[in-house]
Amino acid sequence: MSYSIQELSEGNAGAWDDFNNQCSGGTFFHNTKWKSVLENALNIDLKYWFLQREQEIIGVFPLRHRTIAYLKGLDPTPYSEFNSILLNDDFSPRDLNEVLALFASKYSFCSLNMNNKTLLDHIEYNHYSSDNIGNMVLDLQQKSPDSIWESFPAKKGQRKFIRRFDEKGFQIHEVRQLEDMQTFYRYYAENLMRINGDTLPLTFFLKLLETYSRDEMRVTLLSKGDIYAGGLLTFVHPASKTAYFQYLSLNRSLPNTYHPTYSLFWEGLNWAWDNGYQKISFGRQEMDPNNARFRIKADFGAEYLPIYSRVVLFSKSTSLLYRLKGIYYGSQHEQNSSINRGS
User: Fold this and answer.
1) Which residues, listed in sequence order, are joined to residue 228 by a DSSP beta bridge?
2) What pTM was estimated for this model as a whole?
């Protein structure tokens, strides 16, 4: 096969988004608008690559340029729930090493997230597992809101947690005003400080508000008068019919009998159902049934979908340095940060 790679530019950005929207694994986080937000709001050096075979686009590689110990490399787009490489369904996994060789001529290492486990069997360079997390995803075609409600065990309290806010006069409102986003951010930041999560700056959320319309991003607040209970920021990707419950904002000063996450997720789930979405992503998560956030997502019918990650080392010197110094140790911080974003 004759493969080539081409870097994303203004001139071919439309082709990138077309491929993402048509690809079976395409997501909100693979589009060029998200790339622009990360670059402008967080000053991240991103390098997006087309994979071509005889001038036909058969894959896209959304990556971030990274230099470690004077070694140039690439790793997955940070702060993104979904950042796997995307390949056409007819791409042969046996050709992966030939594709990696195109990057080996430019870089010392490359970290990749993949959806297809069989790709791992065709990496001939030295490579190491770089992560052990997955995405929690609900398939609404398999589990409707009614069936999820009926699946809540009667004695475990999920229905009570949802009903309590209605009984106490709380309501969920969809908002777009600057002051509402500032309120959302205040409790988002306080919640992440409480759980030692990685907090993104307010300027990032203001950039989201500026960039995305109501058709692309939904922000809801759960409140009663001046009493704020929580909020949920949801992204949507019509092409894949997926809604992404992306950022939670929680008032931790409420009595511990209140659990706003349940109410926010339940309202968001029903909104997605009513608007024709077929899947809901609850975000990244370690596979740990003892973790409270994992259990909440599982309560709503979400299933754990593993991400297959590898650090590929293109030279003997890079491999030696990796083993001796652990040069890649710190590079997964942003990848794992979404686990502790409060959702």
Assistant:
1) 223
2) 0.93
